Amino acid sequence: PDALSPTTRLFNTLLATFAAVFVGYLVVRLKIIVPEGGEMKALNYFVGQIVFPTLIFRTVATAKLGDVDLGILLACGLGKAVIMLVVWTLAFVAYRPSRSAGQRWLTATVFGFFAISSNDFAIGFPVVEALYGDSVNMTIYITGNAVISNVVFVPFHFVLFAIGRAMVASEKGRNGQESSTPPSCAWQVLGVVKDIFTNPVIVMSLSGFVFKSIFGFCLVSDGMDLKLPPALGNIVDLVTSPFGMCALFITGTNLRRFHITLWPVLLVVMKVVLCAYASYLFAGLFVDKSLPKKMQAALENFSFLYGMIPTSSAPLIFAQMYDPTAAEGVATAILMGLVLGGPMMFAAALFLESQASKLTAVLVNVQFTTSIASLVCGVVFLGMLALVRYGFDISCAPRMFVFAYGLTLICYETLMLFWCPEVLPQSCADYVDGFGSYWVSFSWIGFFTRWFQ
């Protein structure tokens, strides 16, 4: 495995990640597991209230943040914050504006939390480890961002949710929908503080800081990483070992509804695309200029990749708690983010890996990989049509259009595969020699490629 290229390791990691999510999605669609019947309650509690907080404790307690370029953490945090502010404002102003201010506040907070809730542990850690390996310790930056998220962003959103709930209760009291007197402002503040300091994630984050401050001398150095003392470390490792698969599986089980509308698409674009560019922009401003140029470039590239990490299922849980009407859109956005974020990270990794080499080789690799993936999807498409062939109405114009479009793309990708120098070097040479000519040196591959275009 050490001989594999970073992009190959990344591809294998992404494949395993999406397979775990798909397993969770499939068992719910086939009704093998029925979450509505409480069959996921124990696993959700185990992962959310025990495993995840314990993982946070280990992450904070063993973090070697002294070796981190704080400018990169600041860049990633500011990138998230800017996108969160934009999403929150758009949602509060434009998402179903006829509702009360309290309901719009809660929805805006759910959508804002979507923009900053990167799946650092289930996706971020394995992706960064696969891409960088042991050459550069970039997992420490995932750790730093996870700490910032759980210590800064999560409590901040708890406050926003508490404010929104207080606004809704106050509005219901004024409208006579609730006979009881709404709690005072001081009582609401005490409730917010209580919710924050009794949250398992916050408690374990603080516990990690305390352990590192008092018992830091017990930590065992392992090259670029620190580890907990053997006895405690073995217990923590045992508790946290199932987190990766279980978290991804739970993510898949929560994706029960899929309905593409404007807002899910907007959320995905803001989180997976614009957040990446915002983080990269701030990284160029705040990266430590005293570092070697190669390390500066690596850190800036990391900030771009980090911004692409898809959203976890946490916003869906908050949507179900605070604004159930937005849960369907959030679930759709999470699934779309996984579908879009994986190929984007892989394509970015292909270019970043080959910065020192000629870009032509990278483009050839991208074309070859894309053509293979497209043909695999084409075979799946034809297989699905074969399964429903007797119920496929050929008199339906939209269905025939989809069939013709899919068949055209399959033929086009097949021809593009022959253009690739990895498969048929001569065809690529013919294209270069005849570039600009409609007939492309009278090559039959070139002729049919242009025709299918």
UniProtKB/TrEMBL annotation:
The chain crosses the membrane at residues 12-30, 42-60, 72-93, 105-128, 140-164, 231-250, 262-283, 303-322, 329-352, 364-388, 400-419, 431-452. The keyword Transmembrane applies. Keywords: Membrane, Transmembrane, Transmembrane helix. The keyword Signal does not apply. This is Uncharacterized protein. It comes from the Eukaryota.
